[in-house]
Amino acid sequence: MRNILALIQRYYVFLIFLALQAFSLFVLFSNNNYHKAEFISHSRDWVGSIYSKRTQLKEYLMLGEINDRLSLENAILRSQLPENFSVVDTASTSQFDSLSYKKFEYRNAKVVNVTLNRERNYITLDRGALGGVEKEMGVISNGSIVGIVSSVSDHFSVVMPILHSKFQASVRMKGSGDFGLLAWPGGDPEIADVKEIPKHVQVEIGDTVITSGYSSHFPSSQMVGYVYSMDDRAEENFHRIKIKLSTDFRKLSYVTLVKDLLKYEQDSLLQQVRTLDGDNDSD
Amino acid sequence: MAITILINILRIAFLILLQSLVVNRMQPLDGLILPWIYIFGILMLPFETPRWLVLVISFGVGWLMDFFSGPPGLHMSACVLLGFLQPLVQRLFSPREGYEITQRPTVQKMGLAWYLTYAGILTFAHHTWLFFMEVLRFNDFFYQILHIILSVAATLLLMTIGQYLIYTSKNSEQ
Fold first, then answer.
1. A-chain residues within 8 Å CB-CB of B154?
2. Which among A21, A51, A89, A126 counts the fewest CB atoms within 10 Å?
């Protein structure tokens, strides 16, 4: 017994080191699974409020550029007003009636923090659970996809953007309609990969890539980016496509949150079928 | 004594805010260079700090840094390693008669060569651990090594310049 005490006395610094290191690694690796991830630390309110102070300062310095973009958007929206269109044939215009239902609901939010230079980047927004934000909501900016909400506190929420090694989304080539998988390889925050588009599909540099609408995070036909380069290998059956993302993460300041109003219904229906089939796949 | 403790606490708090609000926003070469200057607060702890206290302070610094950046636990882990190595490196490069009570691990007190060796080894250990714990893979090895070397160089440069700017011979006692 005395020997053990002497041993502890002699190596206590090393033992403290081992204990603290084990705790740190436990915290690090137990948070790794995206679906279980809580990102508790990022969505703390006090961290968010420090970040929003800094953003206020930055916004003040960027007012000119933001003004330019807002007035451009105003011009585009104004040009879409109904009085700008003359009705050619009343029989062909669609009318809203009880047969149509609302599927997506939009909310705006301000970006208070963005990281770009990690393998796993995050975006913090100034709208949280009290502002109607929920986990798994999609985030878009000027019609281009940004990411998915991964954690929510009362006043802030944290988004897992495309620029995250665990982010994946179903996308579609606008021309041919073939589906692929969007993923980010790390590095350049403007470039991402599109995988699983078979070789027989004709793809050209400059082709548009949009969301498929298969996932409940984003409405269909939101902009993703343009084909930037292709690096096909003879032995593989799929294209290796690199796309230039249409979202400029460096200048992100306002985003739109998308809520799928029918997500619960869709998921629970799928769950019923799965239970009937005895398939307990958890995704 | 009390003023030394206060100054160290203020320095650590200031560096964490500087790191997360300013340095992390600068991304030269698309994030190829990413200095983590907040570890300066741990490197500046006085020589006579007990080893267990260095470890606990480093753990706290990493814990605070995790609120601002990276997945939870990442900076904690790298800082605990740094806090374990810091007294060992200090002992390794100590003068034959040991450190004097007025000496501090700064360029002004210990000389540029001593400081660059001391800070260089610790910064390299911290950055390497931090980076590989974050990515957990070894593909694109050349890029990752380049990233670490350039980031360590940037951190060392910023810490050294900072000392020349802030500490004159008069106020370098703390």
1. none
2. A89
